[in-house]
Every structure is written in C-alpha cells, then in structure tokens.
Amino acid sequence: MDIGDKVIVRSNEDDPLLIGHITSFTDFGNPKNDLCPIVEDEETKEEFICMGIVKPYSEGLLKELEPLTPKEQWNLLSKNYKRS
Asked: How many CA atoms lie within 13 A of 45 on its CB side?
C-alpha cells in the first residue's frame, strides 16, 4: 500500500472500523522495524498509527464487515482475506 491509498482499519480493540487514507509510515525510529501505516480517519481527520489490520478499501469488503462484531471482523481479516 502507498501514501494516499484508501483503507479499512480493524483495531484489535472493540473500536469501530476506521475508514481513511494512508498519510505516511513510521518505523518508530528503528530502521529494523517493519513500517507501520499512519492513517487519517475520513470522518474526524485524526491520524492514527495503525498496528492492527489494514486492508485496501472496497465497498464489498466494507459491506461484509459491517454486520460483524469487532472480534468477527478481526478473525475474518486475519485469515489472508483477498476478496474485492
């Protein structure tokens, strides 16, 4: 994924899904770390460091996730979900 991409973020907390755009990446000051995306929430314009699951946005994926609980969403997304 690249800066500017629209994404769906699933936190490992019981928070609502976050829909936003990647604004940058961080390695937390250690180049040995994997890069972690920073996403701006479309609604609030707040930026979040996303250490949960980040997937490319699609209407189909969003419709499939919306009726699920946060735990069900996590379980679905953590299984190499590839539908569009």
From this structure: 0
Q: How many residues does the chain have?
A: 84
* Alpha carbons within 13 A on the beta-carbon side of 63: 5
Residues 62, 58: Cα–Cα separation, whole Å: 6
pTM of the model: 0.85
HEC readout, 26-77: ECCCCCCCCCEEEEEECCCCCEEECCCEEEECCHHHHHHHCCCCHHHHHHHH
pLDDT band at 79 (very low <50, low <70, confident <90, very high): confident
Collapsing DSSP states into helix, strand and coil, what is residue 3? coil
